[in-house]
Write a structure and sequence with these properties.
The protein is mainly β and 305 residues long. It has one domain: 6 Propeller (Neuraminidase).
Length: 305
């Protein structure tokens, strides 16, 4: 499955691994509020991990990748909703691909002998931040959207996510001196100004997702004793738990209009997708029928009318 190197790191660091593909984070539209499009997600409902899209209610499911030699996941919509970047090992190595919204014309843009994964778009659609082992260790890198001009950004970190204005990147990192504790950190897009914003020693915070207006972050924390979806301000103030159920509640991604958050939950014993209001009210199950067993969701931004 995807990224044996990444899987070994996650098992050692205590970061949540709920599937063989490392969780991704959503891209955000530069024009807020945008219209809510389709949700892309990964599922093994056909026996192999492939990418699917569905409406916010789980209707009109479409399979957009069909591979027989690998697995696909960590899909994120481009800011204009016309492309997706995703991770695939279809060529035997973890690489980042960019394809049309319907999955056609997929192009390997990394072509590196080392594992590359977890892409996330800059809000102008010109660059991607991603995770790579190409220097022999887990690091954050950036590159142009066509794969050119790859550059090391930060020595460490996983699950990177651009802020809507493109000036900052949130990511998950192990706490200094801790063997099984992670926090959400933010750095400037040039790699400077590292700040721990979740700052809850002895617990695990991860999966940071900026709200489309840039004022809040949805994230996962086990500070209550179980993985739940939380929100906080972009400086880490006012952490608020918005789910309170059994099972894991992970992988939050904001809707482009900021009215809902899609996430994955094992509350029923299966990995299913749900949406919830940022207040924690109005939980709706997205996964149904052929849309079941969804994971790694990301919400498509559509242009404002």
């Amino acid at each position: 499955m995807v990224a044996n190197k990444f899987l070994r790191y996650f098992a050692a660091s205590g970061v949540i691994v709920a599937s063989a593909i490392i969780p991704a984070f959503p891209a955000h539209a530069s024009a807020y509020p945008g219209a809510n499009g389709r949700i892309v997600y990964s599922s093994n409902q056909t026996g192999n991990y492939e990418l699917f899209t569905a409406s916010a209610t789980g209707a009109n499911v479409r399979q957009i990748t069909r591979t027989t030699t690998g697995a696909e996941g960590q899909a994120v919509w481009s800011p204009n909703g016309k492309k997706i970047a995703f991770t695939s090992n279809r060529d035997g190595n973890d690489e980042i691909y960019v394809a049309n919204a319907n999955g056609t014309k997929a192009v390997n843009i990394t072509n590196s002998p080392d594992a590359d994964a977890q892409p996330n778009w800059s809000p102008d659609g010109k660059r991607l931040v991603f995770v790579s082992f190409r220097n022999g260790g887990l690091q954050l890198w950036t590159m142009n959207a066509d794969g050119t001009k790859a550059a090391n950004l930060f020595a460490g970190g996983v699950q990177p996510s651009f802020s809507p204005d493109g000036t900052k990147i949130a990511f998950t990192n192990s706490d200094p001196g801790a063997t099984a504790s992670t926090d959400v950190y933010v750095i400037s897009a040039d790699g400077t100004g590292l700040t721990n914003i979740s700052n809850d020693a002895g617990t695990n915070s991860s999966y940071a997702s900026f709200s489309p207006d840039g004022t809040a972050i949805a994230f996962v924390s086990d500070r209550s004793g179980r993985d739940q979806i939380w929100t906080m301000s972009v400086d880490g103030d006012r952490p608020t738990m918005i789910t309170a159920t059994t099972g894991q509640n992970i992988e939050p991604a904001w809707s482009p209009d900021a009215t809902r958050i899609v996430f994955r939950s094992t509350r029923s014993g299966e990995s299913l997708l749900y949406t919830v209001k940022p207040s924690g009210k109005g939980i709706v199950k997205v996964s149904r029928g052929s849309a079941a067993r969804g994971e790694l969701p990301n919400w498509q931004p559509l242009p404002r009318r």
